[in-house]
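Dataset card, provenance and construction

Sequences and ligand SMILES were collected as paired inputs. For each pair, a complete structure of the chain with the small molecule in place was predicted and serialized as structure tokens. The example below shows a pair involving zinc ion. Curators did not alter the output after generation; any descriptive sentences attached to a record were derived from the structure itself.
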Amino acid sequence: MKLLALRCPTCAQALKPQNPEVVVLRCANCETAVSISDTGLDIIPIQFAAPAIKPEQIDAWVPLWIFNGRVNIHSRQTQGSNSQAQQDSQQLWGYPRRLYVPAWELPTEEACQIGGDLVQRQPAFQTIDSPSAKATLIEAVLTPEDALKLLEFVVFNVEAARKDWLKDLRFTIEAATPQLWAIPAQKAGSGWRLQPLVE
Ligand SMILES: [Zn+2]
């Protein structure tokens, strides 16, 4: 393990990550979002999504990568035939889309569920000013490169959930550099439940 002097690039305050896999965290002093990689520390822009609820219903903000991209389905083979399922698939991936990947630490299955739900709904979040430093931003543990890999599972899961018994799926994803968003969340068991947003 490499030991870096973790200091905020803006105010030099010591940063204290909770998670050893941390990729992005927020400075508790000046609220700068800081990305940590092998090449060092950098300031990273982050957008806070406007909640549709009162601030006191927010326990923390969770990080989410949003890519603008396109999923090109090259072949989709199924065991059953269901023209609605085929049509829905073509409708979803026939256009450039926003592609969403949860970046906080959570089980892959759950990340796919959340990403798949969002990609089918295509919400466009509105930004608000960054909430005060007292508002916790949960650390991101997923790099954009890893998010792109997880996105393949998201796409696969969406297609496998259709009612025509997916047998084989060949596709490629074209995606630009993602933006990091912070989404209001409420504590739910050992994880986080996303709170309603202004879309
Ligand atoms: Zn700082």
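Derived descriptions for this record:
The chain has a mean pLDDT of 93.
Residues 8, 10-11, 13, 27, 29-30, 32 surround zinc ion (CB under 6 Å).
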